[in-house]
TrEMBL record:
The chain crosses the membrane at residues 7-23, 54-73, 79-97, 138-158, 164-185, 220-240, 246-264. This is DUF1295 domain-containing protein. It comes from the Bacteria. Keywords: Membrane, Transmembrane, Transmembrane helix. The keyword Lipid biosynthesis does not apply. The keyword Nucleotide-binding does not apply. It holds the Pfam family DUF1295. Coiled coil: none annotated.
Length: 266
């Protein structure tokens, strides 16, 4: 069970979506399509190569999928639906295209350091079946896209109100600011790596631009991107009080907060 226990939280998150009247249909389609995406893009390549780096392709394109499904299925205010859908499509596609470029250039032919470190953590926890642990980890990423990470988009897209809440404005401002910071940080890192390659210097620490103040400004900004979405979802979650049972409504609220917590932990 120690291999499968981490799956439980995400399965519960998806079941909460499936039990609601407002989100069950889009939740079902998203869950099935995430399963197909991760099976062919992540799980099978990971099994054949023994490398988990393919998660970096599957996860962002899964977010793009969430955006597309939201735009197609949502019945809320058209402007609100368009904004949140584009946010997911834009963010997911940017990271997805970057990952595909890494794959094209051969950077995924060896395991990325963070996944090598993850294997050390598994060994320390007594998970000696690395192949199984990799598959479970890949499935967790897919379930995250099917549950907690999809919730802000799905909930926002249920809101039919034409008036815009101050929370939505604050959330979108945070999203744009964090997305800009994340993009700038990534550009600065790539520029630094190319300069080091040109000078034939190795094992140098990137301490330019935003990287001078934070070891991972792109990670911090990615977390703030999700915090922006969580904040923007608050007014729409409140309106769902009239449509869902109190217990499910409360569980949806807790799940939105868990989105921020999970991204912070990640």
């Amino acid at each position: 069970m120690k291999y499968f226990t981490p799956l439980m939280l995400f399965i519960v998150g998806w079941l909460v979506i499936m039990l609601t009247d407002s989100l069950s249909q889009i939740g079902l389609f998203n869950g099935l399509l995430q399963l197909v995406l991760f099976t062919f893009v992540v799980c099978i390549p990971t099994w054949r190569t023994g490398r988990m780096s393919y998660v970096d392709i599957g996860w962002p394109w899964g977010l793009t999928l969430v955006g597309l499904l939201t735009w197609y299925f949502a019945e809320g205010n058209s402007i609100r639906v368009a904004v949140v859908s584009i946010a997911y499509i834009f963010a997911g596609s940017r990271m997805g295209l970057s990952a595909l470029n890494m794959w094209r250039c051969g950077h995924l032919d060896t395991e990325l350091p963070r996944y090598t470190y993850q294997q050390r953590r598994w060994q320390k926890a007594g998970k000696t079946n690395t192949a199984l642990a990799m598959q479970v980890e890949a499935i967790i990423q897919g379930l995250a896209n099917a549950s907690f990470l999809a919730l802000p988009a799905f909930i926002i897209a249920t809101n039919t109100a034409s008036s815009i809440s101050i929370f939505e404005i604050i959330g979108i401002v945070i999203w744009f600011g964090a997305f800009a910071m994340e993009t700038i940080a990534d550009v600065q890192k790539v520029t630094f790596l190319r300069e080091m390659q040109r000078l034939n210097l190795k094992n140098k620490v990137c301490n330019v631009g935003l990287w001078r103040y934070s070891r991972h400004p792109n990670y911090f900004a990615e977390w703030m991107v999700w915090n922006g979405l969580v904040i923007a979802a608050i007014p729409s979650w409140i309106t769902l009080y009239q449509q869902e049972s109190f217990v499910l409504w409360l569980l949806l609220g807790v799940s939105i907060l868990l989105t921020s917590r999970l991204m912070y932990t990640t």
